Amino acid sequence: MNSGSSKQIRKKILSGLLVICIIAFFIPTPYYLFQPGSVEELQSKVTVEDGEKTAAGHLYLTTVMSLKASNIYYLTYGLVAPHTDLRKVKEVRGDLTDEEYSKMLEHMMISSQQNALAAGLQAAGEDVEIIPAGIFVSSIHESSDAKGRMKVGDIIWQVDGTPVKKSDDFLHYLANKEIGDTVELTFTRDGIEQTEKIELISLKNGVNKAGVGIVPEDQVKLHASRNVEINAKDIGGPSAGLMFSLEIYNQATTGDLTKGYEIAGTGTIDMDGNVGQIGGIREKITAVHKAGIDIFFCPKDIHANDSNEKDVLDEAQKQGYSVTIVPVKTLQEAIDYLRDLPPKETT
User: Fold this and answer.
1) In this predicted structure, what is the pLDDT of residue 208?
2) Cα(286)–Cα(62) distance, integer angstroms
3) Do 230 and 122 fall within a single domain?
């Protein structure tokens, strides 16, 4: 074989490899990458009307940076990068589309802020009126007649002309319906009223034997004794609930809950102040360590499948982090812990 032929073969091989590399760039992978995100101070994001902003220390929410592995190169990076967790798309968002997943995150953050407002102000001894405002569609079953006709994020407020303000109203109305019956749902989508006639399907695991085939969540409005503004910008999801409620409580009450400490945390919150499990706890404790935080609140493991407390303690021990980790099951437990702390010594 002469040198000219060898050059042509090498050129073809290189060209073929280049084409393969280009094609691989556009082939998506079914994974998300999760890495330590930001630790964000809350006093500048939360403002309680007539509240105090004189804390010597700070309260922080924590985030996880998520990135869709849109090609094999991102996936390869995720396999070798430190403090990076790979999770399948289905594990992260189930069967939701990108648009539906974004709506769910937005709804979860709004609900988280409402829960934090109610929990924080009620812990401070103030009254909060909780007003049902319809039913948020958080998921639609594949076999539902509503699939393709309704969307995640729709707000149902009427069934066959009957107002339904909360999920219990909705389930009660459908309780005596049969499989194959049709109901007319009135709902809003992006502020526009719409109606759809939906045939009921069999519910194998539901309270009722027949239903629409959606997962409903209560939509509420709050009337509080004073206004609370939360500027969360692009932060999605419910995991900042505990820390929002602590910041609201700290501003709404006299004294300084922080006592000079830098305090971060994570955990969902409900309106009664109960703390719930979240995702990405290992990534969050790494972010907290890098930020030099003193105290980190995490959800306490209560049920058999809970793992936040175990995971965060395991990660901190393996990595040698010196952050004080405090598992809590309620907002009040976090408040009591901080109230019992001596003021931080200054040097």
Assistant:
1) 72
2) 10
3) yes
